[in-house]
Amino acid sequence: MKWRRSPDVFWRVAPGFLVLGNLHGNTLDVTAPGDAVWALLGEAIEEDALVDQLVATFSADPTQVRTDVVKLLQDLSKAGYVQRIN
Amino acid sequence: MSSGSTEAAPLQLAARHGLVAEPRTLTLEGDDARRALQLARSDRLSGLLAQAIDAGTLETDADTHRAIIRTWHEQLRAGVVLEALIVRASQLLTASGVDHRLTKGAAVAHLDYDYPSWRPFGDVDLVVHPDHWNRALAVLTESGYRRQAAPLPGNYDERYGKGATLTSPERLELDLHRRFAIGRFGVTSQVANVFEHTDVVELGGVKVPVLAAPDRLLHACYHAVLGGRPRLRAFRDIAQLLLVTETEWESTFERAGSWRADAVAATGIVETWRRLGLATEHPALAHARSIDVSRRDSWAIRQFAEPTSFRRQALTTIMGLPPGRIPDYLATMTKAVRRHQR
Q: Considering only alpha carbons, which residue of chain A is nearest residue B79?
């Protein structure tokens, strides 16, 4: 399963900070490492590859990273900021 | 204008962050730290301050650093909301056949800065084609936008004015530009010229037309020189367009010359080097220095160096008008000044 940013999203990143917005002017702050996830979503990416890259970047526990990433992607998908590509 | 004061060295360093190599680290403390927080908020210098601290060329205490970051994040949130406004307004205007170009903050943030986050902005600026001015106002007001000030009498806005500030239904600020300035250097401009070329920025998946780089540079010079008490960010935009975007500055001077506004482009560039404390040589700077700004134009520019009265600035218009049009202008201006003073 692949994920990518929705085309109609507005965003700004700064170190450890990500804010997303939509056409209606709603915004959502995403805490770190959401900014790192967002950077990897610039192109469509397999969920497994996304997790692998984050595990490598943060030297973190793969199971925990997968849990956190899946939860984040589901939340962002519900809000319309990312899209799942089957 | 060259009599204007410069900011302290650490603030200059932040304002030129990323443009040139900095040989030493400066410390931001005391009055400079308080001024930095002020500029972070009012001049939206937060992104550059944060980057300079992050890069280690600027040192400060933890509280000041935190306050700068907090301000920066607030401004980034505001920018995301404003970008949605840009798209909504641009789509409305496009659907009604109104030719327009995004300019200033949002335009340079996306097309000229390394990262848009470095250049927060607090409102939206659109230049509207002169032939479509009334239609633009009609389209937007029909969609719930409100003018912050009533139109000046005698059709002043369209004939001589800078434009109109509107408030969106969400209470956000949208500046529509009919000209880049009022007064001497506004009335000699031919704004239709800037619609000959266009750049594009994609926001939220929508392509928005933007002033071409040489015209972004000219507008940045107008803002820095005639915008009233210009601060560091206005000059940083000019430096960014010249040193990073490598804008074809000859085209900027060509346009300025055809508008009899060489003095504005030259003053903007010379002042940029002084205000930012830049030592780098650049052919645009050499050209700007070679321009002989007349005493009349210097006087006109000085009327804009501080946010003085509308009347004093509007009076400079007569310097740009043919003699036959001056009596009519003075009559129109008198009515406009009376309304402006209410």
A: A12
Residue B310's pLDDT is what?
A: 83
Residues in chain B closer than 8 A to A10 (CB atoms): 80, 83-84, 203-204
B80: nearest CB among A8, A15, A27: A27
CB neighbour class for B208 (10 Å; exposed up to 12, middle 13-18, buried from 19) = buried
Chain A residues closer than 8 Å to B206 by CB: 8
pLDDT tens, position by position, B130-142 = 999 999 999 999 9
Contacts of B184 (CB under 8 A, 6+ apart): B297, B300, B316, B317, B319, B320
In this prediction, residues B245-259 reach a mean pLDDT of 98
Q: Is the predicted pLDDT of residue B340 greater than 90, yes or no?
A: no
Write down the mean pLDDT value for chain A.
Answer: 94
Quick one: tokens of B188?
A: 């000699």
Indicate which of B65, B81, B119, B202 best probes the interface with A, i.e. most A CBs within 10 Å of its own CB.
B81
Do B173 and B215 touch, CB atoms closer than 8 A? no
Rounded Cα–Cα distance for residues B206 and B212 (Å) = 18
Put simply, the chain A residues between 55 and 74 with a CB less than 8 A from any chain B CB are none
ipTM: 0.93
For the entire predicted model, the pTM comes to 0.94
Interface mutation vs chain A, best among B44, B65, B80, B174, most A CBs within 10 Å: B80
Are A42 and B98 a contacting pair, CB within 8 Å?
no
Query: How far, CA to CA in Å, does B308 sit from each of B148, B314, B330?
Result: 20, 11, 19
Contact A19 B76 (CB under 8 A): yes
Q: How confident is the model at residue B342 (pLDDT cuts 50, 70, 90)?
A: low
Q: Look at residue B4 in the predicted model and tell me its pLDDT.
A: 62
